[in-house]
């Protein structure tokens, strides 16, 4: 078995749903809200994996468990010789706090005796972030030592890959067309939803029927989905998507064989443009309602329910029988949370949180993505026929 710890993003329920759908591991267990242990039968390509998922901050390989002395455990993994300055650090995920000063000083001493000059990298947070780990080349040095302690169990691991925060932020803020009026889904969330929809298979026909400026289409291209279709009823959205896709193709690794089409279509007439039962997966963030203050929430909710109900009827027509929909439904918030009430028809909601993990979810088995001060939260809904 090859054992890894996935260090989860803020929304750990979504991160877990993504990992389990994408990699379908042989075994997993939740250590705590930051760490999912995952065991694979075959060796796992860590760097490739982290580029294709949105909800994982670091992937850590298990080195030692139930060791008695941390210094002894780490010493086995220190270099015998090293050119330049060897930088190393510690990250801790578990109960309480941990002080690494003593261990770090002893490591420096040991390295000095091996004629290696070294620096202990620390940061203000308890853990070294992916930014600090990358900037100090700790993955290349195999030197972000990760200590996990939970319910009396001890693990030592080393970070093998970190989320590429620069590329993600460039895709978000660096692309030519941004549409803050209709809103943009964060690329990380787009990746998570795609992975939940695709379940590890890229040989699929994917549709985003509210494609906006093309975030989901771009991320689908990067994941390597075989056939990608984007539709939207706005001329501007279609143009923006085309420009962004061209930019993404030129700047990131898009597989040449990806077939991407973007077309102006009103979602209410989707099935007269696309063949019946022609789509494997729909991933989409529809219009979430006007974001201005002072809107009549009941009115907004009613008009959104109408649009979403019509969209769901069309999705049932164009989706193959074993197809999946992953979509955002807005949760409107003023004084209390207000969920959309929709007619699901043949669809049923598929809960993405395995029962044994006992994680919080809504009454209808969906996961909420949102922060305290946001006016609209996103409900991530997975539907199957
Ligand atoms: C929130 S945006 C989608 C954002 C997109 N996920 C992105 O990140 O760029 C919603 C989109 O829905 C489109 N839209 C609204 N009503 C529609 C309808 N009836 N048919 C098709 N598209 C519609 C709007 O033009 C807008 O581009």
Tell me what you see in this structure.
It is a single chain. It contains eleven helices and 17 strands. The longest helix has 22 residues, at 297-318. It is α/β, with parallel strands linked by helices. A hairpin with a 2-residue loop joins strand 2 and strand 3 (35-40). It is elongated. It has two domains: 2-163, 2-Layer Sandwich (VC0802-like), CATH 3.30.2130; 170-384, Rossmann fold. Bound molecules: S-adenosylmethionine.
Bound molecules: S-adenosylmethionine
The oligomerization state is single chain
In angstroms, what separates the terminal alpha carbons? 35 Å
Radius of gyration: 23 Å
Query: What would the principal axes of the Cα set say about the shape?
Result: elongated
Biggest sheet record: 9 strands, mixed
Low-pLDDT segments, ≥5 res: none
CATH superfamily of the largest domain: Vaccinia Virus protein VP39
- Average pLDDT level: 92
Number of helices: 11
Secondary-structure-based class equals alpha/beta
Which topology of the largest domain does CATH recognise?
A: Rossmann fold
Summarize the amount of helix as a percent range.
Answer: 25-40%
Question: What's the structural domain tally?
Answer: 2
* Level-1 CATH class name of the largest domain: Alpha Beta
What percent of residues are in strands?
25-35%
Instruction: Return the string of H and E elements.
Output: EHEEHEHEHEHEEHHEHEHEHEHEEEEE
């Amino acid at each position: 078995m090859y054992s890894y710890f996935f260090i989860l993003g803020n929304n750990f329920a979504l991160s877990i749903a993504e990992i389990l759908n994408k990699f379908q591991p042989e075994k997993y267990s939740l250590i705590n809200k930051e760490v999912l242990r995952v065991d694979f039968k075959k060796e796992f390509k860590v760097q490739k994996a982290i580029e294709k998922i949105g909800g994982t901050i670091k992937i850590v390989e298990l080195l030692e468990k139930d060791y008695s002395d941390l210094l002894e455990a780490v010493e086995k993994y220190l270099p015998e010789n090293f050119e330049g300055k060897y930088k190393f650090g510690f990250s801790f995920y578990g109960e309480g706090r941990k002080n690494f000063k003593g261990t770090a000083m002893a490591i420096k001493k040991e390295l000095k005796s091996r004629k290696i000059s070294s620096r202990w990298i620390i940061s203000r947070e308890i853990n070294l972030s992916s930014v600090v780990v990358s900037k100090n080349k700790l993955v290349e040095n195999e030197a972000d030592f990760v200590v996990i302690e939970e319910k009396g169990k001890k693990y030592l691991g080393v970070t093998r890959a970190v989320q590429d925060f620069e590329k993600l932020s460039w895709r978000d803020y660096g692309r030519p067309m941004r549409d803050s009026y209709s809103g943009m889904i964060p690329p990380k969330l787009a990746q998570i939803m795609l992975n939940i929809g695709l379940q590890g298979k890229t040989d699929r026909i994917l549709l985003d029927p509210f494609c906006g400026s093309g975030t989901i289409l771009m991320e689908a291209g990067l994941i390597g989905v075989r056939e990608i279709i984007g539709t939207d009823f706005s001329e501007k959205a279609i143009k923006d998507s085309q420009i962004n896709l061209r930019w993404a193709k030129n700047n990131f690794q898009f597989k040449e064989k990806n077939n991407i089409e973007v077309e102006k279509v009103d979602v209410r007439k989707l099935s007269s443009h696309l063949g019946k039962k022609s789509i494997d997966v729909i991933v989409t963030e529809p219009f979430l309602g006007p974001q201005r203050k002072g809107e009549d929430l009941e009115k907004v909710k009613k008009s959104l329910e109408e649009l979403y109900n019509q969209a769901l009827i069309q999705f049932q027509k164009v989706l193959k029988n074993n197809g999946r929909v992953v979509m955002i439904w807005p949760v409107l918030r003023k004084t209390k949370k207000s969920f959309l009430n929709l007619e699901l028809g043949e669809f049923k909601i598929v809960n993405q949180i395995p029962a044994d993990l006992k994680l919080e979810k809504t009454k209808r088995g969906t996961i909420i993505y949102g922060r305290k001060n946001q006016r609209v939260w996103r409900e991530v809904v997975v539907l199957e026929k």
